[in-house]
Amino acid sequence: MDHDFATPPLLVEPVTLTGEHVRLEPLEERHLAELWPVASEAALWRWIPWPVRTRDDLRAYLVTAVEGRAAGHMLPFITRLAATGQAIGSSRFGNIVPADYRAEIGWTWVGVPWQRSAANSEAKLLMLDHAFGTWHCHRVEFKTDSLNVQSRAGLLGIGATFEGIFRNHMVTHSGRLRHSAYYAITDDDWPAVRARLVARIAAGGRGDAKTDELRATETGEARQATDAAQDR
Fold this sequence. Notes:
The chain is built from 6 helices and 8 strands, in the order ββααβββαβαββαα. The protein is of the alpha+beta class. It has a single domain (17-231), classed as Gcn5-related N-acetyltransferase (GNAT) (Aminopeptidase), CATH 3.40.630.30. It has an 8-stranded mixed sheet with strand order 1-2-3-4-5-6-8-7, with helices on both faces. α3 runs antiparallel to α5 and α4 packs across α6. It is globular and about 45 Å long. The protein starts with 16 loop residues before the first strand and ends with a helix. Mean pLDDT is 91; it is low at 209-214.
């Protein structure tokens, strides 16, 4: 597929994305008090290079997100339950490159009760619909710690393609050099991926047995690639 230069420009502007299960609203510093009860769960930050441990850490995290939006390369959200408005986490677009119609989805954390749920899956659908439907992106990418098996399986589960390992990619708070696993969805992939994600949401956020079996196989292959990268 070639780029159509008549495509409207990719504009990074605050927006609210609403679904049946969740609503994504522009993230603000004032959301600190709402998000801290969720963000204070240490397990959420296990694979984050510089984890949030205190309210001040979370405040700095929110400031960085809002500054990134002002600079035009991030679009952060607070994730709420659509029915009650309860804050359950956050996600954002980052590394947005309007000239290439490309963005990354990441910085995602959701309270434990809503992980692998329809709420979590629908948040991804809303963001991907915005990326491919409104922004006309050619590519949406994701990255995660190569050791984060749950995240890697989840990305395969929504239909993202594993593209490889960036070795010694990030310095973490412990001094460990993180290898990052990269995944992506392209505009060519999107129709099939969207159908798969819609079916996943209808099933409560989980894939069927066949999908789970495939995901387990693909995750094993991806981990083998990681092991090979670490050995070199």
